[in-house]
């Protein structure tokens, strides 16, 4: 009675392990598929026609135009403020034509006319001060010193980015964690099958001895 109960508990644990393994395998495959569509494709598009270059600041200026941004002052408190448009024009080592610098691809999509979007504050004056500080940074601290920038001749030939949105670290994580999940699931299934096989062999040896 006790022996059959033990065998029953072992079978239940084995089934749970198999279900967990197959669940991890499915989760890993679905994650690879989902992240591949959401991250890998735009990353390859961003990197496919582009590369890195040395940039040098040509001009730093504020336009008279102001743009709206949305600030949050609590769970149910939101409002709209405005900030001046800062443009940083640079020359790249790949082309003599001036290009407009942007923080990254996300900022470029949000406001393609400006080089910097400040953290949206409730006070317009605070937004203006943040933009002025960034303007002084590019004029005084960077000046004529060359720095690395990124471009994409196919998508945005007249714009360059200070940093990439999809860098090597993001691409690594897109594959690393789903792959680890998939391999852990495979390992659980394999170990469960091996344990079952050893248990069957051990039971067969015991029957032969008796």
TrEMBL record:
Record localization: Membrane
Pfam family, one: CaKB
GO-annotated molecular function: calcium-activated potassium channel activity; potassium channel regulator activity
UniProt-listed GO biological process terms: detection of calcium ion
Residues passing through the membrane, by range: 20-42, 175-199
Membrane topology, record value: Multi-pass membrane protein
Coiled-coil positions: none
CC annotations in GO: voltage-gated potassium channel complex
UniProt KW keywords: Glycoprotein, Ion channel, Ion transport, Membrane, Transmembrane, Transmembrane helix, Transport
The keyword Transport is assigned to this record: yes
Presence of keyword Transport: yes
Listed name of the protein: KCMB4 protein
Organism phylogeny: Eukaryota, Metazoa, Chordata, Craniata, Vertebrata
């Amino acid at each position: 009675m006790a022996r059959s109960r033990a065998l029953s508990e072992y079978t239940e644990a084995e089934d749970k392990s198999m279900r967990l393994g197959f669940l991890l395998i499915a989760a890993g495959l679905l994650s690879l598929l989902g992240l591949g569509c959401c991250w890998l494709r735009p990353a390859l598009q961003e990197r496919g026609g582009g590369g890195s270059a040395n940039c040098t600041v040509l001009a730093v200026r504020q336009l008279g135009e102001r743009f709206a941004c949305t600030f949050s002052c609590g769970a149910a408190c939101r409002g709209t403020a405005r900030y001046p448009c800062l443009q940083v024009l640079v020359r790249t080592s790949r082309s003599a034509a001036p290009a407009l610098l942007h923080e990254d691809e996300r900022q470029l999509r949000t406001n393609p006319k400006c080089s910097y979007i400040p953290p949206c504050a409730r006070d317009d004056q605070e937004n203006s001060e943040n933009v002025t500080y960034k303007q002084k940074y590019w004029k005084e601290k960077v000046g004529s010193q060359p720095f690395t920038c990124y471009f994409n001749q196919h998508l945005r030939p007249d714009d360059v980015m200070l940093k990439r949105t999809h860098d090597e670290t993001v691409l690594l994580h897109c594959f690393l964690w789903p792959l680890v999940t998939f391999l852990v699931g495979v390992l659980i299934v394999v170990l469960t099958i091996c344990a079952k096989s050893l248990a069957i062999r051990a039971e067969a040896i015991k029957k032969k001895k008796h």
